């Protein structure tokens, strides 16, 4: 099946959806009255199992569906997802009683324990329509969606960043074996002039992203610094091909 962008998958749902991307590393994600814990799943190389806890904080039963997708990102930063039937969620559809939680178990595709390169997926949690819900005149039922990243990598996996400068942009590439979660990028010129962009995005292993800047340092770019959840990175500049 051809890859589909996350926005296209969202558009396929007939009722409005509130979309919450799981990009934090700790604590539950809250989308209205549906909670998910954890908001990011990390699995060791060679391991196949994980779990989620879904919570219903309403006074009505809530039915949810959890689906797994292979996940990559293009250089504009758009998520591209494709269903991965090898990644099993059990149960994939469940009804959670009011004020309770439900444990969802996951089985990842078999992996090579010796492989260090990181693999990544997205788990999409959708609230399904309640056939017994009667909306007041002039209103619609709003459903919830939560998207959670899943990573599996070896202990020695690590990012390896490089950068190239465009006319008013930076192309940041990761040729390493583990993702980073970038938070900000600073370009500095030889005369000390600096320009920063506060941008939060995942840079996946083997991926790249083009980050636009309103301007570049007036004397050119001599250094690139990336602040990420994983630490601080001084990034090597490479010539534009």
Features:
seven-stranded mixed β-sheet; 20 strands; 1 helix; 241 residues; 2 domains; disordered N terminus; eight-stranded mixed β-sheet; 2% helix
Secondary-structure element pattern, one letter each: EHEEEEEEEEEEEEEEEEEEE
State the helical fraction: under 10%
- Can you tell me the CATH architecture of the largest domain? Sandwich
CATH superfamily label of the largest domain: Immunoglobulins
What distance separates the N and C termini?
Answer: 33 Å
**What's the CATH topology name of the largest domain?**
Immunoglobulin-like
Tell me what portion of residues adopts beta-strand conformation.
over 45%
Overall structural domain count: 2
Largest sheet: 8 strands, mixed
Radius of gyration: 20 Å
Uncertain stretches of 5 or more adjacent residues:
1-26
Q: Per the principal axes of the C-alpha atoms, what is the gross shape?
A: globular
CATH class assignment of the largest domain? Mainly Beta
Average pLDDT over all residues: 86
Count, helices:
1
Number of strands: 20
Structural class: mainly beta
Task: Give an account of the 3D structure.
The protein has about 240 residues and is an all-beta fold. The chain has 2 domains: about 5-155, Sandwich (Immunoglobulin-like); about 160-235, Immunoglobulin-like (Sandwich). The protein is about 0% helix and about 50% strand. It has one helix spanning about 5-10; strands at about 5, 15-20, 30, 35, 40-45, 50-55, 60-75, 80-85, 90, 95, 100-105, 120-125, 145-155, 160-165, 170-175, 180-190, 195-205, 210, 225-230, 230-235. The strands form 3 sheets. Strands 1, 2, 5, 7, 8, 10, 12 and 13 form an 8-stranded mixed beta sheet that branches. Strands 17-16-19-20-14-15-18 form a 7-stranded mixed beta sheet, with no helix packed on it. Strand 16 and strand 17 (about 195-205) form a beta hairpin. It is globular and about 65 Å long. The protein starts with a strand and ends with a strand.
């Amino acid at each position: 099946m051809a890859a589909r962008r996350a926005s296209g998958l969202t558009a396929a749902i007939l009722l409005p959806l509130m979309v919450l991307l799981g990009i934090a590393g700790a604590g539950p994600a809250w989308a209205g009255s549906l909670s998910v814990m954890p908001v990011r799943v990390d699995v060791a190389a060679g391991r196949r199992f994980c779990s989620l806890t879904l919570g219903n904080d309403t006074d009505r039963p809530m039915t949810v569906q959890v689906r797994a997708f292979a996940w990559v990102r293009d250089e504009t930063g758009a998520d591209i997802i494709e269903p991965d039937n090898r990644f099993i969620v059990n149960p994939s559809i469940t009804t959670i009683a009011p004020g309770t939680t439900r444990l969802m178990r996951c089985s990842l595709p078999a992996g090579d324990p010796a492989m260090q390169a990181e693999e990544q997926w997205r788990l999409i949690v959708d609230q399904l329509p309640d056939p017994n819900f009667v909306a007041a005149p002039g209103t619609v039922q709003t459903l919830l969606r939560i998207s959670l990243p899943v990573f599996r990598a070896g202990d020695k996996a690590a990012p390896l960043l490089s950068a190239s400068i465009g006319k008013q942009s930076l192309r940041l590439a990761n040729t390493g074996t583990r993702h980073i979660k970038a938070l900000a990028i600073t370009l500095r010129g030889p005369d000390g002039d600096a320009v920063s962009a506060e941008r939060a995005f995942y840079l996946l292993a083997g991926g790249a992203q083009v980050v636009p800047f309103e301007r570049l340092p007036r004397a050119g770019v001599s250094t690139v610094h990336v602040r990420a959840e994983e630490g601080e990175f001084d990034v090597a500049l490479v010539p534009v091909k």
